[in-house]
Specification:
The chain has a single domain, classed as TM1070-like (Hypothetical Protein Tm1070, Chain: A), CATH 2.60.290. It is mainly beta. The strands form 2 sheets. Strands 3, 4, 5, 6, 7, 8 and 9 form a 7-stranded antiparallel β-sheet that branches. A two-stranded antiparallel sheet has the order 1-2. Helices cover about 0% and strands about 60% of the residues. Strand 8 and strand 9 form a beta hairpin.
């Protein structure tokens, strides 16, 4: 459950979301194209026994299905995590790939804190 509050305004929004317990090596995440909204994502490496790092690539794709550019490449240690924001004024969706299974979650919100919502990542 997520609850967003604003000083003096009380509870602004609340929601419940299903939790996926199955990691995957490819995730797709849609996002909002900029102000007044932000889009963020979190990546978690659930592997705790492997001594090998998990290599993750975050790519920006157009709504027509063409690669625009690679946003970042991450090496996650076992049980490692990474959270980041999508740069403003981009549109399309993210494709997140890895050499070992990972968990991905996204969030969309407004900079003034009045809206915060989960974006489900698709396998």
């Amino acid at each position: 459950m997520e609850i967003s509050t604003a000083p003096g305004a009380g509870r602004v929004s609340a929601s419940m979301h299903p939790i996926s317990d199955t990691p995957a090596t490819r995730w797709v995440l849609p996002f909002a194209p900029g102000a007044p909204y932000f889009t963020g994502y979190a990546i978690v490496n659930p592997n705790e026994l492997l001594t090998v790092q998990t290599d993750v690539t975050v790519e920006l794709w157009s709504s027509e299905g063409t690669l625009i550019r690679s946003l970042e490449t991450i090496s996650l240690a076992p049980r490692g995590r990474k959270a980041s924001l999508v740069p403003d004024n981009l549109s399309g969706y993210l494709v997140i790939r890895s050499n070992l299974p990972i968990h991905v979650s996204g969030a969309i919100g407004t900079y003034d804190g009045r809206l915060l919502e989960q974006i489900p990542a698709l396998r």
